[in-house]
TrEMBL record:
Biological classification of the source: Archaea, Methanobacteriati, Methanobacteriota, Methanomada group, Methanobacteria
UniProt keyword annotation of Coiled coil present: no
Designated name of the protein: Coenzyme F430 synthase
Keyword Membrane in record: no
Residue ranges of coiled coil: none
Gene that encodes the chain: cfbE
Keywords, in A-Z order: ATP-binding, Ligase, Nucleotide-binding
InterPro entries listed in its UniProt record: Mur-like_cat_sf, Mur_ligase_cen, MurCDEF_CellWall_CoF430Synth
Example of a GO MF term: ATP binding
Domain Mur ligase central intervals: 102-299
Native source organism of the sequence: Methanobacterium veterum
Amino acid sequence: MNALIVDMTHGGKLIASEFSKLDDFNVFALDIYNTLSLDEKLSLEKKGIKFVEKSFLDEANNDNFLIVAPVHCNIDSKVDMTHHEAVNFLMKDKINIPVIEVTGVKGKTSTVKMLKEIFKDLNPLILSSLGVEVVENRKSTLLKKDISITPASIIEAWHLAEDYKNIGICIFETSLGGTGLADTGIITNIAENYSIASGGKTASQAKAQIFKSNVMACDFDSFNQFYSDFYKKTNTFGSANANVRASNIKFGLDKTSFNVEVNGLKTIDGDILNTSFDVSTFAPAEHHLNNVLGALCAALILKTSINQIKTGLRNFKGIDGRTSIKNYKGSKIIEEINPGINVTAIKKSVKMIQDLENPVIIFGGRYGVTCEEIDEKATARFFNSMDSKIQLILVDELGKSITNMIKRKYKYTDFNNAIDEAAQMNSKMILLIYRSNFSDLARR
């Protein structure tokens, strides 16, 4: 059969390579965004892959071709298989251990990190936006840093871990949906239903692919708004009416404790679980707590013991450079560093510190770190509406860009000077909101 793989930029290179190993396929590739180097192209051609131009889509738009394209790619031709579905097709007979896939708009990486702690004794293979790592005898080894979370990265993660023979579970962070490989899938939230495919689809539509998982854990609000048709296989978390919810919550910057109430949860074996237990973990604000409930829900679906869940969450201390807390010269610094920072996330972060004494916000970052850019006007409006007791420092490219829209008192400075500037304002509580990859920021 003929297979045309569209988009070499977002994982198509790996998918085309895997298809070329199958005897039944003649593989064609369309580098629709023209990002491949000459060496990369030659390497694929040596595997028998034939490169074509966009006009070839018309020729391939028939029953003799299997057209494989990512869900975000806007092409006029029929699409027989998304990249997510292609990964399932290529890997379903190779991965023979439990799989958890995590998708959503916010909180994916944090949820994966919690699951890593919960399942540490099972020697998990982990794919997240922080990289590919494997845990063996409770010791983590980073196999690759700074990897994308396109579905094709699941193939790469599996190949990278070939020498590790005792992997007991896979935990994969996947953008724009799931592959169908998962025993349980998680939708953390649809915090913003942004457009993809040149406006032809939305994030919620793309992420619906995760419901090909055997059993689902879904944020309650997202389920009600977008996914209620999948009620038979879905457990919800977050709301007072969800299957997994929190009560008696005592928020703290370093540790939050609460009671977990579980009602009518469907497990992987089809059993129904009703229980309650106490948990303490790092979850300084409501949106962090929702991520915890998502990880909890998935672990319970897989019939994980309550003691194992409690121990794993107790060991979770946040993620360096995502949400974490540090001490500096007598001040506490809450770091919220994320390539996907948007207005919703900013508002939730500020809520953590707005009632504390003399707080300072440092805000800035870079453009182009994700496909989804930030709404500058909405960000500026929010900062203008904040209580005047909250002092504001703007830094770097993003901070500079909104200075002309800020109608309140602020300082603009270089990122490297910002923490010292905040300390000079006699603040004991500094909130750093920075739009970047942590690996980029860590080099500074």
